[in-house]
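Inputs:
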Amino acid sequence: MEKFYTKNHEWIKIKAGAGVIGISSYAAQQLGDITFIELPQTGYVAGKDDFLCEAESVKAASDIYSPVSGEVIDVNKRLQDSPQLINTSPEDEGWIATVKLKDPEEIKNLLSEKEYKEYIKTLGQ
Amino acid sequence: MNYTPHTEEDIKKMLKSIGVSCVEELFDVIPQELRAQSFELPESMSEQGVSKEIERLLSLNGSGIRNFAGGGFYDHYIPSAVDFLSSRSEFYTPYTPYQSECSQGTLQALYEYQSAICRLTGMDVSNASVYDGGTAAAEAVLMALNITRNRRKIIIDSGVNPLYREIIHTYTENLNIEIVEVDSINYRADRKKLKGLTDKDTAAVLLQNPNFFGAVDDYTDIVAAAAENGALSILLFYPVSLGVLKTPGEMGFDIAAGEGQSLGIPLSFGGPYLGILAACKKYLRKLPGRIAGAAQDSNGRRGYVLSMQAREQHIRREKATSNICTNQNLMALRALLYMVLTGKSGFVNVSKKNLMAAAKLKETIAALKTEIEIPFYGPVYNEFVIKLPVDARAAVKKMLQQKILAGVPLGDFYPGRQNELLVCATESSSDEDFKLYTDALENLLKL
Amino acid sequence: MKLIFQKSVKSRKGVDITGALQGGTEKLPEAKYLRHSPAELPEVSELEAVRHYVGLSRQNFSVDTNFYPLGSCTMKYNPKILEKAASADAFTGLHPILGFYSCESCAGALEVLYRMQEFLSEITGMHSTSLQPMAGAHGELAGMLMVRKYHRKKRNNKKFIIVPDESHGTNPASAAMAGYGVVTIPTGPDGLLDIDILREKLSGETAAVILTCPNTVGKFDPRIKQISSLARSRDALMYYDGANMNAIMGKVRPGDLGFDIVHLNLHKTFATPHGGGGPGAGPVGVTKELSEYLPYPRVVKDEDDGFALSFDRKKSIGRIAPFYGNFSVILKAFIYIVLLGKEGLKDASEKAVLNANYIMKNLNASFNNPYPGHCMHECVFSASEPGMAMNIAKYLIDNNIHPPTVYFPLIVKEALMIEPTETESLQTLDNFIDLMRKASELMKKDPQRLQDSPVSMPVGRLDEVSAARQPDVNFTS
């Protein structure tokens, strides 16, 4: 399935009409060992680029933003006990939340996988 | 007197190595026009000279004053080993145990402190302490606002220590929240009103047990009513009372905060004290301040670290759970030592003795042939209110002439209650103290 | 070491405080007010407790046992006479509420507080000082609340506090607690605030600028007055984070530089013991214009030249502590100032700067120095390679030296922030320099050795990741 990315390093893919959101492999690597993620609550309504939730590592805390506008309809409860899934499988098993898209057109303004890969090359390291 | 070890020879050698001709050259970066315009301080003194100055200052304080004032701060006996152990250089002179391998003593003691606080309060988790009871209460309120996110109302019973209520106001003044204070009725919380005011916009209800008037209560029903509305409940507790009284955990409180001074910490004219902050497990990651946690090294040995630091200001900066950057470490150690040294049964004995002492003094005062009224006959702990036929503040001032601190006049904190006096007795009050007190009261009222 | 709870034996007694309680006199309230069963506190003898905690204490490094060059923390020697004053019964037994009813009964304590307010105002060049804040961050909070009061009175619509990127984490956190947003200004290649960006970001909505001077990379900003007047032109207040006051006592006063609010850390600059992380004290000083906003009560002189408490709270931000702050910490710092006097305090700052520069100069060849040139009381190096600052820290532990502050300030990669303080001798510094040079050689020749440190401590490096994932913060069995 096609994935789209943001410059904040979140990804989203459309599955059964809803958007599944997570953070990119690049972001997971930058954050280091994730120790805790405070999942959003279902029913939480986020605008595009609004705060979605936050992730903690031993020496850092980072906000994760929603790539699109929508309402959270599901969260990855496995992350509560196994936040390390974000490190081991950031773009699959480490997904964070599913949102009901308010405006599917928003996807079009995100980066394609290829564009995102080009983008992170410009960031060095 | 100074404590710099540099000899002339050392200084020469160091300056040469640095490549400057005098120490002042190292300050050349500071332009002359920025230099101090004044620095008028006393001349340096010898250690012996200072020792005499200390004697002089000590002699200025009134000595031999018998203390019947509490108000949340108590004159308790402190076991000698508390002073002895907490004064060890290795506990006294390190800093924050960020480098865990060379700080295991402090870290394990903190872990033990947290565990002992949980056992005492019946709560699941405790932090490594904050400044004092008042700031613990304020941090508890901020924590509740943080957990409940968009709720803006805090309900506080007026039986909560008035000094702490003021600190909470100071802390929250700019946070766009509403604080509703509910007057107590007949020295107890107005449960009907408290429950009625709790709604979907309420972040927390704050209560104290025993309350400022010494009255003991069971708040289980108020906690349940708060929970029904999705509001948190916070209890301010008095540690020594928990040798016998129902715990915040047993009543179902979400957060428990308290002043730990009664656990082996001297009164010292207001500090340093100890802010205890504990909570139920689901709020662990919302607790502010330091928390010690167990960890393992690569050989499987158990040790301790400052855990979950990503909550704190040095990492999260403006998004931290609090700006607090320390704990009252040495005070937490003293509290731990107090709980360990008195131990399971000794702690209960101290707790009971306090209860009995207050009850005895109350009965003795009630039996006096004076116009003193005892307005509340329900259960009290350590402290109780008496109503004098005269102004209580004036009475306290008069009794101080006989070296008796008679109590805390309520009128200063509760307008209109000028004749009421909050009287305290602890395990260190003797029968002789009681006699002196009641004699002085009788004399006062005769005049 | 085993936990004290694991040494507990059923029915063993500790210290007897009460003697036997006479039966029949117990008048316990009815059962619904009582706890179900006693708290499971340990049951150990006094001797067992003493051995346990003496044993634990020996697992700590401390200033009294080890060199402790922890940057930004000013781990100087704590003179023992300070304890003599603070442990006297005439102070420890004093109930704070006594001051509300009889200033004569606590005249010695009030004299200490009053004179300390005066001392600190003179040292910082401020008009008046409150001793109430119980730590540096608490002083910052009091300061931010006063910033609020000032702008409210002037009906200014202010929204942001400006802080440099090298600032202490408490600065933005305190601003947030007062309801302000935070704007961060980067540090230039010279280690100083980028003044052009400051000019750009300063606006009518800026409430205050918080600076540490010298800053956390050990540099004094000679343009500080220019920065103050820039702030003033936007009616933004200048806040001085006094964490680094130890560099400049008697040389510079924040009040003379245009600062409006200053907090000090008595446990750093004024030699009170750190206690393993508190108690401290964070007095806050202000200009005349702001003095009416200080926390109350304050100690004042009455008509007869005696000392009294002022409970005037009309304009005050209110109470931030229940009484007068951490009195016994204030008392120790007061005694320290009396001991050293003006010449001693100046001497302390001069020797602190001398010691830091000596270390800097002698390590320049071994480590990357991001901000060369003389430093003030501390210097910052970069260990360059990922993880190396931590490795060096652990290597120093194996050599009985407490590590410098590592990974702070955040703007220096693999930061090693070294603050030797003035009370350390040339021999101690030389030993440290020697070890640091060895560490730098090991970085190239035998990095594994560094990676394996420490080996001489009761535990090796602990797995903080697992500890944070599965927190165990309360011993439950």
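The longest helix of chain C spans residues 327-363. Flag for discussion at group meeting.
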